[in-house]
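During the reporting period, our protein records have gained a structure token line. A sample record is set out beneath this paragraph:
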Amino acid sequence: MTARAPHQRSPRPHGRGPALRLVSDDDGAQDLDPGPPPRDATRLRAISQVTALGVEEWPPYGSPQWLRLPPDAPETYAATLEAAELHRTHIERIYADAYRQAEHTVRTAADARAAAARTRTMRTRAPHTLTPTPGWPPIAIPGCPGEFLTLETSE
């Protein structure tokens, strides 16, 4: 059995530019140090692919320097991987923020409804009076199984 290489503590090994970040469970972003969580297999794969390419520096994706690179250059692929990973984490953060906002809205509405029910300030309607209509079938009376309201006409 061979020994494993030690985990590199840098969120972007050998690269240059902003460190890639993850959405954390709390409100802020966190660096991957001291190691990524197991749920982030996509990020680990991107890091391993860049490491396997042996590229130490690459220009930012879409920059003039990147556009001058040949399509088969490893630096082109490394910059594309970095851009894809940054986009993925950005979308993750957007979804996480939207989920938190929706959860907060639902919780606030539920709290307001519960408070209104406690103080009896919730508006409720008076019970609807059932009225039979000519030509329509009999109306089942709620809460009274088998009882129907029918139109009585005198001829």
About this structure: The chain is about 40% helix and 5% strand. Residues 1-18, 20-24 have pLDDT under 50 and may be disordered. The beta strands are 22-23, 29-30, 139-140, 148-149. The first strand starts at residue 22 and ends at 23.
